[in-house]
Design goal:
By secondary structure, the protein is mainly β. It is 0% helix and 33% strand. The protein contains no helices and 8 strands. The protein has strands at 9-12, 32-36, 52-58, 68-69, 80-81, 94-105, 108-112, 121-127. It is globular and about 45 Å long. The model has no long low-confidence stretch (mean pLDDT 89).
């Protein structure tokens, strides 16, 4: 069985190599732009500066054959099943990124804390809902 997953946009980031990207966005990633396809413009309504959202990406440079890794690419860490890690290399390389909206300019949304490299396809965006809300 297969599923049709269509990108809705792309990441524009100064990060151009996966090796130079931080492991998590809060570990020093530069601000980046989410650039959306005009077909999903209505879906961007109600996003506001300061919002926290989850950005789902397709980690297009990932190795899809990987099922075990040394966490954080540190060989001192024991081999661990990929589903217990945040490794980009995995059978279905879906990225999950918690970011903060810094600016909105039409189909472009500037965000903080995104560790995805330039050109990464965006597949969805969802609001962060805290358990106490």
């Amino acid at each position: 069985m297969t599923y049709d997953l269509r990108p809705i946009g792309v990441v524009e980031s100064p990060l151009d190599e996966t090796q130079s990207a931080p492991k998590q966005g809060v570990e020093g990633s530069p601000d980046a732009w989410l650039v959306f396809d005009p077909a999903v413009a209505v879906g961007l309504r109600n996003l506001s500066i300061g919002d926290e959202v989850f950005v789902f990406t397709w980690l297009h440079r990932a190795d899809r054959s990987v099922v075990a890794v040394h966490p954080r690419d540190d060989p001192r860490n024991p081999m661990t099943g990929v589903f217990s890690t945040r490794s980009a290399d995995r059978p279905n390389p879906i990225g999950l990124h918690r970011v903060r909206v810094l600016a909105i300019a039409g189909l472009r949304i500037r965000v903080a804390d995104l560790e995805a490299v330039d050109g990464t396809p965006i597949v969805d965006v969802k609001p962060v809902i805290d358990a106490g809300r």
